[in-house]
DNA sequence: CTCGCGGTTTTCATACTATGAAAACAGTTC
DNA sequence: GAACTGTTTTCATAGTATGAAAACCGCGAG
């Protein structure tokens, strides 16, 4: 029955290459909260023995995937990654296709707009246009990630995704950020069903108290949800704008991007064919959880 | 004599971890000219046997470092890289520190300005502010790279770097892009000496015929050159502006950024202490060239 | 419909590579 | 100067990554 006879089953019938897996685990350990780490931090974060972590890190440094403070000392993600991200970003045609519509949406609403996708079970920002009110610049930024369960973008992406990510997120503990964060799995499931019905998602301060955000899914030609767009701003202003049809505008903008990507459908239909893997999608990392029969 | 008794000597006294090295070689094979590759392309580019390349690629896909078209087919750099680049970019405080000065320079000159660093022997753009003339958007972009020997940024970085990169670049064949490209090593060396004297570098259509560019080095607190800034535009306009003291402005802007980074010196002195490795710097990749004694 | 071809995926026995415990080393603090 | 804390190196060995070759797949031509 095609159970990979080796240790960890993985991608297809393959085993994981341990050293590579570990190297990537080391890279993955960095995020905006811990953008720099000492060897010890790394060991702790990855559960690797010091000698091993050291050797791998040295290899990554050598190749520019990590940088290191004056030969010894803290590590942080290196320039090679910036170069590659440039290439990666260039491959996301959603980004180019969405740009004009996004700009329009920003200019009309005067608030910050985002384009984002799902990376594993987190939202990753692919594009950001700063709002025109010179006020608080949001903490977002291209390449940043945010939790999915408490952001409009995340909820839109989960609700209109293929269901795997939704299950994955729901199956874990949902972290509380504000009093309004939905931390109950069943509740979230219901909420996402509603999002699916509506065709858009709203975040009413579930991640940051004063922020309101509206998001709608973007589908590629095959109908697969590959990204989402959003408008976000302070509660005050956003509420006024929502009264004036901002939600409709966001949905309209998303639909227009879909059309520019070649998607013809229109009604928010749930995913059915699991075939395509077109643009986005990273399977869950660290540990393969139990044997999904597939 | 501390020659690593293992196969390939590397970072310090360490050997390379082959599978990791190969995985990174695969990633490195992607660039804006070949942003997508089939397995066969990869094999060709990396000289790996198909089975090996396949297995490694599958591992990278699994972790989101590569994406793959619908399960089989072309590979391209994945979202994980975008996330990490975000973290990396956040760590370059040059970037933040330089931002206001850069903007000023752009607004004054109305031309496109760049912040860039050396990644191996190429220039990598870390920041770009589009010029105000709505005309030709340059092909640059954050994360893109360009050759060092024929761009103002590159020449500034080489001339004021620690010398290793300069030697490295000169020791190789210098590709010709335009009639004015300096393709002779000795000539380039002389030219860089002049750059060092002047304190800035100029590109007179050595990379793209019609483009003129002025660049000056940015030093960190220790005096080490970690980046360079530039103003670039069409020959016509740039020549006018150079008559009006644009060169001085660029140098002044660079010096101001240095000061913001805590560098107190001022005269362009050549590097002397090889201690720091502060912000930037990736050693050469692929193959360790002959035995540099130290 | 079948054959053949270019490409991708899987298998499998083995060589040799990556591993981590432990020891050396370096830098700081008391 | 002694006692730590964290980093680097060593080294014998377990067991992993390897690649040749075979299976597979999809497609176009006959």
Give a written overview of the molecule:
2 copies of one chain form a homodimer. The first copy, chain A, has 294 residues and is an alpha+beta fold. Chain A has 2 domains: 18-83, Winged helix-like DNA-binding domain superfamily/Winged helix DNA-binding domain (Arc Repressor Mutant, subunit A, Orthogonal Bundle), CATH 1.10.10.10; 92-260, GAF domain (Beta-Lactamase). The first copy, chain A, contains 10 helices and 8 strands. Chain A has helices at residues 18-28, 39-46, 50-62, 79-91, 93-109, 152-160, 164-170, 185-198, 235-243, 246-260, and strands spanning 66-68, 75-77, 112-119, 122-129, 145-147, 201-204, 211-219, 225-234. In chain A, a hairpin with a 6-residue loop joins strand 6 (201-204) and strand 7. In chain A, helix 6 packs across helix 8. Chains A and B meet through helix 1, helix 3 and helix 4 of A and helix 1, helix 3 and helix 4 of B. The structure holds a DNA duplex (30 and 30 nucleotides).
Mean pLDDT of chain A: 84
User: What is the CATH topology descriptor of the largest domain in chain A?
Assistant: Beta-Lactamase
The coarse overall form of chain A would be globular
Strand order of the largest sheet of chain A: 5-4-3-8-7-6
Quick one: CATH class of the largest domain in chain A?
A: Alpha Beta
- Largest interface, with Cβ-Cβ < 8 Å? A-B, 69 and 69 residues
Q: How much helicity do the residues of chain A have?
A: 25-40%
The helix/strand class of chain A is alpha+beta
Oligomer: homodimer
CATH homologous superfamily designation of the largest domain in chain A = GAF domain
Report the uncertain regions of chain A. Answer: 1-11, 267-279, 281-294
Rg of chain A to the nearest angstrom?
A: 20 Å
H/E element order of chain A: HHHEEHHEEEHHHEEEHH
Number of strands of chain A: 8
Task: Give the percentage of residues in beta strands of chain A.
Answer: 15-25%
Largest sheet data of chain A:
6 strands, antiparallel
In angstroms, what separates the terminal alpha carbons of chain A?
12 Å
Total of helices of chain A: 10
Q: CATH architecture of the largest domain in chain A, please? A: 2-Layer Sandwich
């Amino acid at each position: 029955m095609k159970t990979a006879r080796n240790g960890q089953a993985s991608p297809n019938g393959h085993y994981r290459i341990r050293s590579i897996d570990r190297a990537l685990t080391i890279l993955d350990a960095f995020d905006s909260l811990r953008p720099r780490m000492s060897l010890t931090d790394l060991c702790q974060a990855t559960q690797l023995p010091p000698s091993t972590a050291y050797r791998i890190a040295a290899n990554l440094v050598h190749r520019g995937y990590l940088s290191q403070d004056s030969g010894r000392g803290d590590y942080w993600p290196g320039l090679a990654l910036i170069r590659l991200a440039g290439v990666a970003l260039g491959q996301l045609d959603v980004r180019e296709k969405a740009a004009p519509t996004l700009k329009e949406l920003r200019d009309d609403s005067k608030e910050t707009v985002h384009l984002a996708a799902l990376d594993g079970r987190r939202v990753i920002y692919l594009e950001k246009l700063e709002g025109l009110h010179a006020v608080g610049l949001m903490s977002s930024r291209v390449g940043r990630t945010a939790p999915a369960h408490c952001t409009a973008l995340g909820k839109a992406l989960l609700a209109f995704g293929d269901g795997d990510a939704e299950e994955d997120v729901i199956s874990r503990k949902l972290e509380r950020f504000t009093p309004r964060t939905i931390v109950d799995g069943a509740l979230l499931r219901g909420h996402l069903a509603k999002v699916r019905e509506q065709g858009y998602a709203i975040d009413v301060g579930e991640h940051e108290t004063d922020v309101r955000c509206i998001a709608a899914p973007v589908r590629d030609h095959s109908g697969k949800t590959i990204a989402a767009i959003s408008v976000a701003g302070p509660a005050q202003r956003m509420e006024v704008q929502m009264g004036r049809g901002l939600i409709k505008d966001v949905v309209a903008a998303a639909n227009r991007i879909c059309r520019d990507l070649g998607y013809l459908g229109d009604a928010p239909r749930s995913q059915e064919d699991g075939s395509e893997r077109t643009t986005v999608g990273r399977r869950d990392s660290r540990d393969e959880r139990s044997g999904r029969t597939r």
